[in-house]
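[Meeting: bench + compute handoff]

Bench side (C.D.) handed over the final construct sequence. Compute side (W.E.) agreed to return the predicted structure before the next meeting so the bench team could plan truncations. Sequence as handed over:
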Amino acid sequence: MSDPIFNRVLLKLSGEALQGDTGYGICPTVIESIAVQIRDVYDLGVEIAIVIGGGNIFRGLKASASGMDRATADYMGMLATVMNAMALQDALECQDVPTRVQSAIQMKEIAEPYIKRRAVRHLEKKRVVIFAAGTGNPFFTTDTAASLRAMEIQADIIMKATKVDGVYDSDPMVNPTATKFESLDYIEVLQKSLNVMDSTAISLCRDNSMPIMVFNLQGNGNIKRAVTGERIGTLVGELKSN
């Protein structure tokens, strides 16, 4: 078994990753498989924090485009991420992985408030921490929340799990001749408008030298492969030396 090359990681999951082929909501089989993958990484001794989206339940941007007030739509999207966080917490604890949910919007009956020091302490005590409700502010994506939380907890890397095996120069689902990038720097991502993270998140990572690994979540054991140093996706930025 290979040893992990990272001590602490921030895993970014989209809400769509939880819906599987159903097109909406949470697929029990999919969320269980994700929990198993996270447990395998947890068993290596890696400290794991997770930011999860809510697009499988509600997409604020889509609702805003249909006429809803943008701030209201974004707050509704944040609440969707809390639902996903609770579902993932349950799935992880069914795998005997101790987990805490911290929400940027206070709802003390179901989640802890986000407190940086408490989050870091949970990680040090080998608990998985799920950050819900984005940044707690409208007009910011969960990509930006992932970048922000990664800086705050001093993660070694952001690992963005997607439906494709890296970053391409065009959509590989549409263009079969799309070219995959093995590595990129932050400026290339911004200049080429590549679909990695939104520009605010990329700029934040660039300013703080936070590397991003983009890889396919759907491959069996891919999170573990990425954590142990196998180049299975696209690396944005440079890895930090531990």
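W.E. noted at the follow-up: The chain is about 35% helix and 20% strand. C.D. will use this when planning the next construct.
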